[in-house]
Amino acid sequence: MKKTDRHVRRLGMVSCPTGYTWANVKAELRAIWESNVKQWKIELAYPLNFIRQCISPVIFLLPFLIYGLVLIGGRYSPNLEALIGNGDVVTFIFTGYIIMGFIGTAVWAMGFSIRNEQWFGTMESIYITPTNRLSIVLGTALHSTVHQGISTLVEFIIIYLVFGLALNMTGILPAMMIFALMMLALYGFGILISALSLVLKEGWIVSEGLHSIMMILSPVAYPLLVLPEVARQASFVFPTVPGLIGMRMFLLQDYKPEVIGNMFLALLLLDAAWILFGSLIFRLTDIYVRKRGSLEKY
Amino acid sequence: MVHIDDEHDTYSIQTVNLTKAFMKKRHKGIFGFLRKNTEKEKSKKQSSEAVTIALDHVNLKIRAGELFGLLGPNGAGKTTLVKCLSTILIPDEGTAIVNGYDVLKETTMVRASIGLVVGGERTLYWKLTATDNLMYFASLYKMPRAEAKNRVNELLEMMGLLDRADERLEDYSTGMRQKIAIARALLHNPPVLLLDEPTLGLDPTFSRQIRNQIQELCKDEGKTILLATHYMYEADEMCDRVAIINNGQIVAVDTSNQLKTMVREKELVEVACVNPPLGIEAELKALCSDVDIITLIHGDEAQGKPSRIKMIGEGAEAHIGTVIDALRKRKVQITSLNIGMPTLEDVFIKLTGGAKLTEGGEAQLGGQEAQ
Amino acid sequence: MTQSSLRSNYFVVWNEIVKNIKFLLAYPIVFVFWAIFPIFWFIPFILQGQALVGGLSSQAFAQIAGTPEFIPFVVIGSVLNSYVLSSLYGMGESIRREAYQGTLDYVLASPCNKSFILIGKAVSESLTSTIFALSQLAISILFFGIALTVGVVMPILFILILLILGLYGIALMLAALSLRFKQAHDLAHTLEYVFYLFSPVRYPVESLPLWAQAVGKLLPLTYALIAVRSLMLLKQGIAALYIEVLVLLVIDTALILIGFYLFNWMENKTKKSGIISQY
After folding, report:
1. Which of B83, B151, B174, C275 maximizes the CB count within 10 A of its CB?
2. Closest Cβ–Cβ partner in A48, A66, A223 for C203
3. Domain for residue C279, yes or no?
4. What predicted TM-score, i.e. pTM, was given to this entire model?
5. B268 or A163, greater pLDDT
6. Residue B325 belongs to what domain range?
7. Which of A84, A106, A244, A288 is nearest to A188 (CA)?
8. Is the pLDDT of residue A201 over 90?
9. What is the span of the domain harbouring residue C77?
10. Cβ-Cβ contacts under 8 Å for A181 (sequence gap 6 or more)
11. pLDDT of B15-25, one tens digit each?
12. Among partner residues A60, A83, A202, which is closest to C51 by beta-carbon distance?
């Protein structure tokens, strides 16, 4: 085979940053940002839908709160206090439920980011660009995270006004750090789901299933101790578990240094595991769908 | 080992034994897994019927600056070839070199070298404006923001849509959306354009505008353009060279005029008629058994496009009388008779042994001739 | 109505049912999903109850709900709520789905009475909802200790029919609005929220503020839930529930009449404006 110089062409010149160069990183970051902006523009084209989605977390939180209050005939649960050292049902449930929307970021928003492009008909147009597809997924993640942040703020305001919340305000910053670590792992999880949704015709069932399982195995509305031992151990594969345990320790002022340390470590390990695993499956799935030729099929 | 032909060193697109097959999916119904396969189903599974060969060892060379037509009916493999070249599809065998980059090993650079335009309505975000759409895709082509802004305005002006730049695409007509799709393909000024039926579904006015634009891009800007189409006249009028593809195989590659010489004058007779009866094709084949190809192409009488009986092969001219007598006996109205002026359609029919064309291709051909 | 037109209308209903069920069976995994998965949605409430109360029953709960058994209370709410979901997203969105598939024009241009098409859609949705509900109930009986005696089966079926009729009216209204407003999916979600919050799906309606109770008392699901729980948990007879039954009948009649009227009105309106088949 005759050698040809791949970097000098007598044909059309193209300039495109590639590899681990600062120019390429900047370009990919810009693609993530623009993908996020695009999602916002499309979402705000349906303003009623946007408002509804900002309110819906409260709609699904309220039954947990009302049900809890009715069960014990008030706000304080002696049994809850015996389990975790804090008997305030409303604050406990609220601090758990705020992550529900962010689970949705992973399993729904990120999970269906590429799939939705199939629905729009823009999938192939995006795939033939030199930008990494992960940037598209991360752009959706950014949009969804901000969106959930807005919803969480709305939730906080409504629940605070209606029920009152006994939160440790000095614990918010360290809780946000734990939250950030949890979100990194959830992003990895979301990348995995986005890959699976390309391959599985009814990928929404996987998303719905995982969402429900995470809801059951995470200490959202009840402490982890309520679960059987086997389920408790298995639940630590989800970043929401150490995330919630750690966040509540700061927000409910229930510091246990050795536990917080373990939760930080668990989150770091989960971050690495889910991001690597998710990215690997994403890459393999990309090759698989391109071989199968099912990229544009919705 | 892939041998890249550098003899001319000006090939913009080169495919080497490009092969792609798809498995046919069988739907047995919800309780199908309970049923045992019948013998027929078992043998079908093992036979070639289970696999569709979309591309069969395709070898093509397209020179830089060439407007190259890929002509074939639906299901011939045109879109599959375009998808392989644009890295959307990974071939089973062989490879392709686009702008000097291997589609399998250097996919990022291939993507930076190509612009893709496909026919069909939904390839853009309808809830975004034209500017928003183009700016977004500019970011995916890794263009700096300032450069992207200038380029977007330049392209919108080229397309005559600058004054509607801030309207949502849902308010655009189909033709205008297709112009934006072309603008998107040109954002990063790629040296290679892949066009897969870009005028599909467009009215004659927009189709003409887009064809003119394609020719200008090739002539004035020196872009290499691969135009996949089933419209014969598009390939005939526009392309420097044409490849005819059928059942995943390239059956001929040459200039349009050279291809037409494959059908000699004495070898072609076309009889246009109205409402030919059922069975007429079989009857004529029996009467003129020594003619290589006799085929009936149904027209659309409601639209004023008659059906056509084509005879291609040695002795076609000698059987004119037989055909006319047979049609008159069946009281079929004959509207015209054409002897020895082959079109690409005739070349296609001859090379593919009488394979039928799609209704869309024929209808458009008729419409274009009327223009 | 002649015998042949009756037969052809029956044919329309039958084919609509067969078509919808075939669609569902084309996705067997979806079928299995809806038969089993809604159970996962109420498990957190059971675990929450155990965490807060430390057992399987609560006297505080009994003071409002009339029964200390919160697990059967939640299970019944979830099973009946699945009818709401299938009405809103199944029947209610069926028109939108026809538009998406591109078949709406042809359906509406056909000479048959559209009411029978809608009846067919409603019946197929009800059938599949009942299959899913029975499946969920069977799993609940096996795993969550729900007791179901033979004597309550027929009264419960009667209440379910009344519930389905009322939901049918709401689904008709939703289908009507989806002819005109292409984002009817948001409306379906909003209605789902209304049912979820104001009906006693997870908690007794008496635990809500008065204004919220008033909203709840307009919804057919509220009375259906009260009736079914009274039959299963409080061991009351159907005769004792005559108020709930009467109110359900009145609500059903109103909802169905409004639904049919709205659908016909919207169909004519959108046919005139030409946007009927736009998706």
Report:
1. B83
2. A66
3. no
4. 0.85
5. A163
6. 259-370
7. A106
8. no
9. 3-273
10. A239, A243, A264, A267, A268, A271
11. 999 999 998 76
12. A83
Residue A271 tokens, joined: 């971050």
Does residue C190 sit within a domain?
yes
> Does pLDDT of C191 surpass 80?
yes
Dig out the tokens for C217 from the structure: 């008392």
Min Cα separation C213/chain A (Å):
13
pLDDT for the residue numbered B139:
96
From the list A46, A60, A67, which residue is nearest C203 (CB)?
Answer: A67
What's the confidence (pLDDT) of residue B367?
31
Task: Please tell me the distance in Å from C86's CA to the nearest CA on chain B.
Answer: 21
Average the pLDDT over B31-51 and give the result: 56
Locus of tokens 């009327």: B370
Overall average pLDDT of the A26-49 stretch: 94
Instruction: Return the DSSP state at A75.
Output: S
**Whole-angstrom Cα distance, residue C118 to residue C171?**
10
Looking at residue C90, the DSSP 8-state letter turns out to be I
In this complex, do A128 and B86 lie within 8 Å of one another by their Cβ atoms? yes
Number of domains in chain B: 2
pLDDT of A8 reads 35
Inside any domain, residue B2: no
Which amino acid is present at C150? Answer: V
**pLDDT on residue A11:** 57
For Cα atoms B293, B299, B300, give the angle at the middle one, nearest 5 degrees.
Answer: 170
Closest CA–CA distance from residue A62 to any residue of chain B (Å): 33
* CA distance to A214, C55, C137, C138, C140, per residue, from C144 (Å): 21, 14, 10, 10, 5
